[in-house]
Design brief:
Conserved Hypothetical Protein Mth637, Chain: A; five-stranded mixed beta sheet; single chain; about 35% helix; alpha+beta
């Protein structure tokens, strides 16, 4: 089983986080790392593995390796579960920002 998500990455951010979900289902993600030598891509995969609670080896950038727009493949997780984990990470981040003013 393989599921796909679309992400739009903003590198060089103050923190790594999901900060918006677009109407088409694209997840906007800030990444602290720079895009130099694939550091931002590696940080993105690491962040997604943490949020999805799966090994990094099950996450692959299918397209957009050198672009902000990326298609991500996630192995052995259903699309619905994938969206639940990502939505929860977004909501948790929004709650933290709201509390901190």
């Amino acid at each position: 089983m393989e599921s796909y998500i679309k992400v739009r990455v903003n590198p060089r951010a103050q923190r790594t986080e999901i900060y918006e979900i677009l109407p088409d289902g694209t997840y906007k993600i800030r990444i602290k790392e720079t895009p130099i030598k694939g550091k931002a891509n590696k940080a993105l995969v690491k962040y997604l593995s943490k949020v999805l609670k799966i090994p990094r080896s099950r996450i692959r950038i299918v397209s957009g390796d050198k672009s902000r727009e990326k298609l991500i493949s996630v192995q052995e997780i259903e699309k619905e579960q994938l969206e639940i984990y990502l939505s929860n990470a977004f909501k948790n981040n929004a709650d933290i920002l709201e509390k901190n003013g």
